[in-house]
Records
---
Amino acid sequence: MSRTVYVNGEFLPEEDAKISVFDRGFLFADAAYEVFPVLDGGIVDADAHLARLARSLDELDFPAHYTPDEYLPVLKTLVRNNKLHEGLIYMQVTRGAQDRSFNFPKNADPTVVMFTQQDTIADDPVAKTGITVITVPDIRWQRCDIKTVALLPACLAKAEASRRGADDAWLVDDEGFITEGSSNNAYIITKDNKVVTRHLSKAILHGITRVSVLSLISQTNLELEERPFTIEEANGAIEAFSTSASAFVMPVVSINGNKIADGKPGPHAMVLRKLCLEAARQSAAETPALSPRHRIKKRSS
Amino acid sequence: MSRTVYVNGEFLPEEDAKISVFDRGFLFADAAYEVFPVLDGGIVDADAHLARLARSLDELDFPAHYTPDEYLPVLKTLVRNNKLHEGLIYMQVTRGAQDRSFNFPKNADPTVVMFTQQDTIADDPVAKTGITVITVPDIRWQRCDIKTVALLPACLAKAEASRRGADDAWLVDDEGFITEGSSNNAYIITKDNKVVTRHLSKAILHGITRVSVLSLISQTNLELEERPFTIEEANGAIEAFSTSASAFVMPVVSINGNKIADGKPGPHAMVLRKLCLEAARQSAAETPALSPRHRIKKRSS
């Protein structure tokens, strides 16, 4: 069955979900986006994602009157229309369509697109075996804190990983430090039980799941250290993992072919994954989108 | 009157020229493009632009069987359909539409979009007074030699120039050297009659107009020096200019509010502009697109 996709006020069958070739999202990557996890028919961290989208648009000097949080009812309607029990909502806002010119248009209205993707997140079988990563140079622009659709370097990194038989790529800056994964934040756990992840800056995305996981560390016997780490340090780690809205906590079991510890998902990562999923389910329950009937029906199936 | 736009094999009124919201050009900036100048109803440097597009696609690992030079007849048809005497043709090729996933799709066909823009290039009144530029940090990715649509940093630079009352922005790398303009290559002429422009590397676009202008220097009393230059050196220059497919040679008369020499277009830049336009007209005549009747009609009007 075809999905229902939201495009500028209309709910359309996905085959009809189109935008002008003059849209600045298409011509200039002049657009920001968010990916909202959906669990149990509710939206996870809805407010945080909408706030980050507002911040991205603000950094890109979108018109100030443009406020993403007005779109929460649309997100919910889209989940209902697509009977989405578990998966993702993708939302993109562009600076609108106008005849091609680099400078910002004076009168264009932003374009808003949303669609859903059904996915198995909580019981993702991949989390049970973990993923393998390679490292590639981080060649992205210098504002990776803004969640824009200029994602070509991330696509190239992911494709390179695929070519080299790995699941994902971690990006390495000019000084040899890992910034983050191609579409996720990167972490290692050191022998002395410290969770090490790069500090916030313009070099990495300020992950919403990162915030959640960092706050959950206090419930474990781990300590947090926000600082850059190298591939060598990662190779000597007792565990590694990544976090993202689409996978929550994902164990990393090898880097560039070198196993992390015994090459199996580490117990700390699995505990953090469990805690993170619990927090996410709680957040989803606070922003229900599917009707109760559909939420229950699906759960008991 | 509405333009005719080319989208994947169809010639459509611009209002109907649309692409899927799942197009990777829209979601990931996973696309390359070219801008072809049109003079006297003919296409300037058509082969060079198509070859550069092929190179961009190759660098981005597009399917090898995909050959842009097959599109020359389409470019010509589009010029004819739009009765374009002078202006630009924009051509964009994306990795196609598929449900959103960073990794390259296995079966998607590339999306090809082309449209025209009428413009006064040869007699552009702006060239008579020259343009003002500001400098901003070059925050782009590390493969600016590939002509991709991940142009958001260029848009931000152009908008910043506009806010500061200037016409364009020149980009400055981490070491204080100018790389190029927001959408053009950058040049200064030193007191000892040397044309200085940054050497080719992954840090700048390998401009087709740059090739033309560099080859024309031998017809003047100027010498060429391909190397990085600083803002300070530009401030002490006797002339400055930029080159692009959409403006050929454009005199730059001030940088960050500091006049270059007397703040008027320099004689050398104007000579290079004239020579460049002559070469472009000759190239256009070798790739005529408008019918002879239309080419003459427009010239005598």
---
Amino acid sequence: MKLKINKKILAKNEDCAAANRKFLKDKNILCINMISSPGSGKTTTLEKTINMLKGKVNIAVIEGDLQTQLDAERIRATGAQAIQIETKGACHLSAAQVTNAIHTLNIDQIDIIIIENVGNLVCPSDFDLGEEKRVVLVSVPEGDEKCAKYPKAFAKADVLLINKIDLLEHLDFDVNRIKKDALKLKKDLKIFEISAKTGDGFEDWLNWLTKTKK
Amino acid sequence: MKLKINKKILAKNEDCAAANRKFLKDKNILCINMISSPGSGKTTTLEKTINMLKGKVNIAVIEGDLQTQLDAERIRATGAQAIQIETKGACHLSAAQVTNAIHTLNIDQIDIIIIENVGNLVCPSDFDLGEEKRVVLVSVPEGDEKCAKYPKAFAKADVLLINKIDLLEHLDFDVNRIKKDALKLKKDLKIFEISAKTGDGFEDWLNWLTKTKK
């Protein structure tokens, strides 16, 4: 019975995601779903991305968190539009929540919408939000063995961002191991090594983003 | 309907957790449920804890992961008993899974069982496993604002371990902020600052552990 209900929930989510995808495609907006553990640096990466593309690409952010408006406030401080969804305890965003958020944004001024999912490397992987591309972000302090433990997060992603590379010298983290493991799960995965703190590695990530937007 | 099913699942879990708690109490075994994000250092903390108490306190570990036996293998390398539960995609351990694991352990040789939950700061908080005490672990690179975003993980814990304090000098992390926020959520929370890498701060944590075992 649990399985049946879960299938129903997922099927309803798929319908809603498909509608989001069509709506955003018609508006020529690139939509990205960003997934990571808590504290990997999603918000800092978005702040840096928005600031470095300012005047060239207009980015809006949909923030998912169990509670608090903290992340949306940080994004708004960059001048970008941001909508906070408080999931009230739910461990992932759903496509219906994203539909509501999209219709709250001033949509005509936007080139790219980035959805920052709830900090959780497990549950968000199962929920299509209507994104065009999915980005998984891991940070150096989390360790280099994450692919084996959380394979779905990598197998369903288009891009892997390895963040906090400025900490590599202080930690035992094998960049080649995680790259090799991730490419086994998704052979055409794009991988960028970045530091959202220093800006290192952002050129390639921003190039990918702007080219994918076209 | 979803809510009704969820309530049923939680009620069934509570029954099973109560049975685990009674069984372990009768055997005079302290059971701890450890919760954190992926990559916060749960396994490294357990390795260090087991090694530092070797010959004094006999610790066994029940490992929860989506998949892989990696963590149980690391624990077994210390000489301790370890059982790996592969949840096959489920985002938390359930009390029934722990029951099975307990009955696989050689129970007469154990003083303390530590359950390392699936790396996830959200979902495991809702599932009582039959533990006597709950430990939430956060690491310095994750940032000091975790209490506001994931309040349940802290409000339901008995101990907060702040790990990777050896990285404090490289990161912008306010120990007092997270302590203050955590104590607002749980006023009698015990807080220990540790480095599972260097062993710093372990004395107080191990004292708490051995005193709580009695």
---
Amino acid sequence: MSGDKINLERMMHRLNQLALCSRGSRGITRLSFSRESECANRLVRDWMREAGMVVRMDPLGNVIGRYEGRRPGAPAFLIGSHLDSVIEGGKYDGALGVVAGIEIVQTLRERGLRPDLPIEVIAFCDEEGARFHTTLLGSRAMAGMLREEDLCARDSDGITLAEAMRSFGLDPSRYTDAVRDPQSVAGYLELHIEQGPVLEREDQACGAVSGIAGAARCRFRVEGRASHAGTVPMSLRRDALAGAAEIVLAVERIAGRMPSVVATVGQLRVFPGTSNVIPGAVEGTLDVRSMEDEQRQAALKEICEEAERISRRRGLSFTCRTVMEAAATPCSARLVQAVEEALAKRGLKPLRIPSGAGHDALAMASLTEVGMIFVRCRNGISHHPDEYVAPEDVGTGTAVLLDAVLELTAAETAEKFLNKAVKGANTP
Amino acid sequence: MSGDKINLERMMHRLNQLALCSRGSRGITRLSFSRESECANRLVRDWMREAGMVVRMDPLGNVIGRYEGRRPGAPAFLIGSHLDSVIEGGKYDGALGVVAGIEIVQTLRERGLRPDLPIEVIAFCDEEGARFHTTLLGSRAMAGMLREEDLCARDSDGITLAEAMRSFGLDPSRYTDAVRDPQSVAGYLELHIEQGPVLEREDQACGAVSGIAGAARCRFRVEGRASHAGTVPMSLRRDALAGAAEIVLAVERIAGRMPSVVATVGQLRVFPGTSNVIPGAVEGTLDVRSMEDEQRQAALKEICEEAERISRRRGLSFTCRTVMEAAATPCSARLVQAVEEALAKRGLKPLRIPSGAGHDALAMASLTEVGMIFVRCRNGISHHPDEYVAPEDVGTGTAVLLDAVLELTAAETAEKFLNKAVKGANTP
């Protein structure tokens, strides 16, 4: 038994069917707890059953299919990814990992194979945070990291997460019932599109993920003086946007000097924001990531110092508030090794790529050992209607996933894992 | 008789009373054809009658008070400004010019003086365009520049100008009856707050306006490639916001090198505008003004060329569309001279300030010769609740206005004007 036996045609058909569960005509828009996500959940439940799994939905709306192993009561090996999308995103982000997980189980079932450990395939309900602006809802709930206040997050129509869950038939007060016992879990492996240009540059269909970069997300505000665009000479202005523009370029310059760091100003709002008024204030977001926590912290510090210097020189004020900060999360050495062996088996380089994006694996790492497989996507484009993965890369990635899962759920490996008596800790 | 005789206490009281005709609690909000503007019109009509004027409202809702001169049938000298405000604006913008015009006539009346030419004080109904997003409605109607399509402009509730006029008791179909015969008019002088910092820097209460700057208003778009903020190395990005930031700084630099030019990016919108996505597109507005049309055109050309260079270097595309362009409008030499003489009479410097902002005088210039007096406002702040003019500056500005009007409506001056047989042309 090896990964070549997967049914690529079925996978591509399923990806196309999921893509139909979308709002609007441009790209994929499938927000959590929407009519479109219900449509996707229904498809996934049907496919899981077809693959021989017992299906349930946990209290947060994660769809979970379980394929029993030969040793009843043994901890389950988890494979998963998410079904929600960003607004006008692509059809592979998240969906590919769910379809690949189901395909693996269905392949085993069709070959009459049953691994030692049970396998669970999880379709997480909300990873992107596009609706409630708070990411990894499904996996954080499962890992016991969701907080009651998350239920109060509101979407752009003012609907809270709790209200959205209720109208989806879920009971938000039961959210803690989604938490998994670490003892019942033997690891988590996620296949996901790379969403970056590295595999394309390396000319390889897929690779192992070494870990998930640490990230800081900040909100900054530059304050100057709003005044009439026609009456104030250039030399007497305190233009908040001109100051913010210098800061945006400083972010680019500072991150560009540090090889492991990326930094982005993704949002910028100008007040009052009319054509004939000199901007009085600008608010923006700053996102800094690195696999090296010290580098990330150093970059953020330098950016803030430089922004303050720029603002002082222009008679502006600068404030910056860190709203999220997460340390880098390395993948488990055991899982990385299993992926690398699967790569080697088909003559691929043992590439280890850091993930700059957060994934459900990030939250799952506080529950169990995690690993990830990245699949090449064209031009590194994701979160966009042009997102594209070549079918042959889908096939190669899923075959590598199958081989790694076979290794990780086989009797001997499972035994090793159980003997270590890992209690939810992620051991890199 | 000289300007000292004006009643400053009465003026300040009237400004305070007008300030009560406002919606909301922050600053002044007095949109055209609203309950608040009706309240202001009523006050102004009462004060005009008290000042000895015959009052009428023209078909567009401009309130006009007429104080007859000694020579019946002679063309009228006009003094005016507007009664509408922006949303949450200040209490002097527009209102000061109306109150000053009334004060001058009332001062003449109280001294038993009657100039050779009749004087008309006009309170324009809509200069700011805050309600219908189309400026100078009242003065454009009077100058014959209002077009039928302007009546279809809608406010944010979808109410058209024609509907708003009807519910205000006006007949929109009669809008052309507001047009004045140029032969019946001997000039237009407007006192207005500066809305800029020049007088404050010059340490003087008021000055003559040399003209109203020409303006170009453009919309530009920078297009790059949206991608995930965590996965694309800095060197492989095509960040539209980083490009737009360079363009904002180029606008500042190019305008800063040309003494007569100001240029402003007042609005900037980032797409998709989320913290974890590298901006794929940015849209902004560019406002360029100058008293010298050639300088304005040269600045705009240089900005666009530089923006294209920046975009090319970064692999971005840049497009720019001019949505409005207006030539500079110089004030009449005769009126500027009268104001300068009035300044000199009270020991003030003969300052000539270009107006970067549009005013009713801009529309009136296509009807008759125009002049303006600017009054210092604190920190140059306007269109804001903090707008403030010191009472002594109100007094000085109104005294200068009175002296200039006395000169411009006296027998000899009027004779000179009539002999020139000017037909609505503005002769600088």
---
Amino acid sequence: MNAAELQALIRDIPDFPQPGILFRDITPLLKDKRAFAGAIDLMCEGLAAQRIDHIVAIEARGYLLGAPMAYRLGAGLVPVRKPGKLPFKRLTADYALEYGTNSLEIHNDALSPGERVVIVDDLLATGGTAVATKSLLKQLGAAIVGVSFLVELTALHGREKLDGTPVNAVVKY
Amino acid sequence: MNAAELQALIRDIPDFPQPGILFRDITPLLKDKRAFAGAIDLMCEGLAAQRIDHIVAIEARGYLLGAPMAYRLGAGLVPVRKPGKLPFKRLTADYALEYGTNSLEIHNDALSPGERVVIVDDLLATGGTAVATKSLLKQLGAAIVGVSFLVELTALHGREKLDGTPVNAVVKY
């Protein structure tokens, strides 16, 4: 399946989660077995030929894509979580929301210096969560090979905030 | 990797998320590429020979295991989510916590009657979330082939609450 066929399975939901937001719902794509496998394969394109030690997946929808990418690439899987979920010693990074801030956490033994990782999430909007994840990975000394998204909202210019890191997105709006 | 080798990579965290709870932390297993792939393969054992239309994965740690199982089995992926996360029309099922209740939701078009599904989560404790997920799937008319966990806490007897549904767990405490 190519990107256009995948995009046709993404459903637009107006005014979710709040008025004025057009939500791109990937659940019809995920439930289609050919589309799901095709999306994972496209998100892995260009990565299979490299050494990737870990996929770093962002809670929660990033897990739906990052975990199968790790399996396909023969990599380990490292979850970045919302505050209070990880039980061991952890690092925290804040990121801005429209109003206020939120945080992401990673275990402080999740990665070793020099390990080659790819960050995965479902959607690139303003880039806040991906930038926060990059800062966590830099604190651990990991080598960030790239960031991989299923969907990119290009009008929000999140890609520019990820300067210097290769960004891959399968479906673009 | 066999179940004992996987179990050796699960870390015990006392008093998390609250005093008196011994938390079984699977993150050291997930980040080990051989263990992660081995866990997915063991969780899929006996399923590859059957027709499985969808993996139904429970938020959030269930996604880390259910999504790669769907990829490996060539199945579609259906996320069950916490309240307020799914954007389309949905069904809700409540389940009891030690104090109060919580809910899980599924899109009402996630599955068609007769589709063969496997429920996946990281850990079977009292069985509340798996039972709630079963009730969602029954409302949609799905055929529940089984429930697959990475870890089972046998002393909590969750398996008994899933009467009539085959339960698979790789690591048992």
